[in-house]
């Protein structure tokens, strides 16, 4: 079963290790995570800043990844969406797909957002497939938008509105529940 849970202080070290792995780091548009103190500060902010929310993605009770929303306090009722599956054993097992559904339920249900948006590296085919499969729509293409390893990288802008999710959610939840990935 895949679930989201609130972050715990002991998650910081695991997240640092995951975010330092080349397979995870290559898709992140933020700065490199080589400095431990900077990572602790980022984690502390994620845990305490009302503008941000973070959840540990769990598979079978085992931490498997991270999902975050940022920009929550603005009056537009929208937030930036970031996620990754850090546990290599959990990749390719529906964890990302389930995390999209569980996270969008929280964003549009619990947090009452109107829109969730994301920037995804243009060559991150797996993330683009999972997110568009969950209902995110392509809203733009930004050439040379981020620097990664000193090279410009293109980014795809994605977004989903609350009314779109309301229409898609029942089918998405049912499919994941029938596959045994999330609770009914």
What does this structure look like?
The protein is α+β, with helices and mostly antiparallel strands and 184 residues long. The chain has a single domain (2-178), classed as Aminopeptidase. The chain has 6 helices and 7 strands; from the N terminus they run βαααβββαβαββα. A 7-stranded mixed beta sheet has the order 1-2-3-4-5-7-6, sandwiched between helices. Helix 4 crosses helix 5 (125-134) and helix 4 (95-110) packs across helix 6. The longest helix has 17 residues, at 162-178. The radius of gyration is 16 Å and the shape is globular. The termini are close together. The model has no long low-confidence stretch (mean pLDDT 94).
Short synopsis of the structure:
By secondary structure, the protein is α+β, with helices and mostly antiparallel strands. The chain has six helices and seven strands. Keywords: Transferase.
Compressed to H and E, one letter per element, the order equals EHHHEEEHEHEEH
Describe the global form. globular
Uncertain residue ranges: none
Q: What is the total domain count?
A: 1
What's the architecture in CATH terms?
3-Layer(aba) Sandwich
- Strand adjacency order, main sheet: 1-2-3-4-5-7-6
How many beta strands in the DSSP annotation? 7
Termini separation comes to 10 Å
What is the radius of gyration?
16 Å
- Supply the CATH class: Alpha Beta
- Helix count equals 6
Estimated structural class: alpha+beta
Largest sheet: 7 strands, mixed
Mean pLDDT: 94
Fold-level CATH name = Aminopeptidase
The residue fraction in helices comes out at 25-40%
CATH H-level homologous superfamily name:
Gcn5-related N-acetyltransferase (GNAT)
Beta-strand level of the residues, as a percent range?
Answer: 25-35%
